[in-house]
Amino acid sequence: MGRQWLHAKRAIVNNKKGQFVGKLVKELSVAAKLGGPDPDANPRLFAAMEKARKASVTREVIERAVRKGAGIGDEKMVMEHVVFEGYAPHKVAVIVEAYTDNVQRTTPEIRVLFRKGTLGLAGSNKFLFEHVGIVEASHADTGLDPEEAAIEAGANEVESLTNEQNDDIPEDHLGARFLAERTDTHAVSTWLAKNGWSVVTAEIGYVAKMFPDLDDDQRAEVGEFLQALEDHDDVQRVWAAVR
């Protein structure tokens, strides 16, 4: 085969990069649609714009995605928000959020992915999760007390967050995930940003109430299943009861 394997590998990497950028652009539109086009008043959009800039998405593409999501100009975003509930291997509860312009196409494709890894989609498993505001941020001062910051910001809970859990957290920074009431997400994000924290995620999502015990092999199997879901073009978020 000569060096054909190398060309194939590069093609896969380039495809992954293109898919990642595509999801970032869709996130910009979704954030603008849900919270408006002003990043100073929309923490989810602010975080999405920062991620897009780090991924070298051009200013023109960012602005176009925001205008499209906010309904400004001729181009309008026509997307439906669809939530799928099911289980990964080893009975790990999963919630999948997708944005699609064709539900009739997306739904059977997601069902196929679930059937490949599990017994299929569940009727409902949202009771296994807390529906909360999630703000992930980092601070250069590693000596800060995240619990004190959580109290000041108005969050209900805080937990440590490392670069391995979120690669937007610099390795030499203090990382934390703040959980709040859904209606308080913006206030928590705003307080953190004003007090030296770099906000990398600000959104409403799902946090599992309990986690099944998994060995390394089981965790790897679950990881492969979740990655297959993440790789679907219409999937925007995957929430799973796995640490």
Structure, described:
The protein is of the alpha+beta class and 243 residues long. It folds into two domains: 4-70, Arc Repressor Mutant, subunit A, CATH 1.10.10.200; 79-243, 2-Layer Sandwich (Alpha-Beta Plaits). It has seven helices and seven strands, in the order αααββαβαββαβαβ. It has helices at residues 4-35, 43-54, 59-70, 103-117, 146-153, 185-194, 216-230, and strands at residues 80-88, 92-100, 129-139, 157-160, 174-180, 198-208, 235-240. The strands form two sheets. A four-stranded antiparallel β-sheet has the order 4-5-3-6. A three-stranded antiparallel β-sheet has the order 1-2-7. Helix 1 packs across helix 3 (59-70). Residues 1-15 have low confidence and may be disordered. Keywords: DNA-binding, Transcription, Transcription regulation. InterPro entries: Integrase-like_N, TACO1_YebC-like_2nd/3rd_dom, TACO1_YebC_N, Transcrip_reg_TACO1-like, Transcrip_reg_TACO1-like_dom3, YebC-like. It holds the Pfam family TACO1_YebC_N. Residues 79-240 form the TACO1/YebC-like second and third domain. This is YebC/PmpR family DNA-binding transcriptional regulator.
